[in-house]
Amino acid sequence: MAKITKTKMKEAEYLEIKPSTSLDQLVNEVLAENTKAILDIHIGVRSSLDRLITQVMKRSDGKADPHKIRRMILDKF
Q: For residue 54, which of 70, 38, 41, 76 has the smallest C-alpha distance?
């Protein structure tokens, strides 16, 4: 029997978001609505990045992986 690790259990918690709303679309919407936060991130204000991640998590009803959201936001810069 395969051993289930805490990491695998954590990954299983993040289910797919509704097919009609992709994670990329949610990230783009949040970024479009928060231009000041984007400027703050450029100058190194970490709390702004955390706030954007929180907003995407809320829009996904808590089903998106916050680490993936963080990577997606930072990749857009």
A: 70
